[in-house]
Amino acid sequence: MKLVLASHNPGKLVELQALMAPLGVQLIAQGELGVVEPEEPFHTFVENALLKARHASRATGLPALADDAGLCVAAFGGEPGVQTATYATRFGYEKGDANNVRALLEQMQGVQDRRAAMVSTLVAVRTPQDPEPLIAVGRVGGEITQAPRGSGGFGFDPVMFLPEFGKTFAELPTEVKNAHSHRGRAVRQMLALMQEYWL
């Protein structure tokens, strides 16, 4: 089955391709098909993911999969949340993973409550008008470290510490990260939904 991935994030594409390969799902990045990213006006992951999936499906005529994911920091009332990708720009930095990490660590100086969660919400639609989108949510709780650790992954992986492993996401081998990450959990739910309802 071919699905257009409603994302321009290369790290997300690689991760999702690896996770979905066992089901024979082939993901094609929307950028390869000339699809531009839509504005994301909503405040929840599920609303933005649904909008992105419908947009990609409408533009390509293919079924679409969208992932809206982010970091939710307890001390910040769940922020940056849906604004995770552009977090650094709020503090005068250019958009980018390294600047996001830098801005977060600066904002968390002196903050005792370091609890945070990585959340991934996947939405799949057969058509832009699909009345029954498939929705899967994966969540992993942990803590924000005082400094980046590890060189793997992308996004906030170097500062997302998982107590059960004693490591950050960026310190874990890829197969371990994919098995236990927020996106890995969401993908397993999504694959089960696709098998039940689409295949």
TrEMBL record:
The lineage of its organism: Bacteria, Pseudomonadati, Pseudomonadota, Betaproteobacteria, Burkholderiales. Substrate binds at residues 7-12, 69, 154-157, 177, 182-183. GO terms for biological process: nucleotide metabolic process; purine nucleoside triphosphate catabolic process. The active site is at residue 68. Keywords: Hydrolase, Magnesium, Metal-binding, Nucleotide metabolism, Nucleotide-binding. Pyrophosphatase that catalyzes the hydrolysis of nucleoside triphosphates to their monophosphate derivatives, with a high preference for the non-canonical purine nucleotides XTP (xanthosine triphosphate), dITP (deoxyinosine triphosphate) and ITP. Seems to function as a house-cleaning enzyme that removes non-canonical purine nucleotides from the nucleotide pool, thus preventing their incorporation into DNA/RNA and avoiding chromosomal lesions. GO terms for cellular component: cytosol. This is dITP/XTP pyrophosphatase. Mg(2+) binds at residues 39, 68. Belongs to the HAM1 NTPase family. It comes from Comamonas flocculans. NCBIfam families: RdgB/HAM1 family non-canonical purine NTP pyrophosphatase (TIGR00042). Binds 1 Mg(2+) ion per subunit.
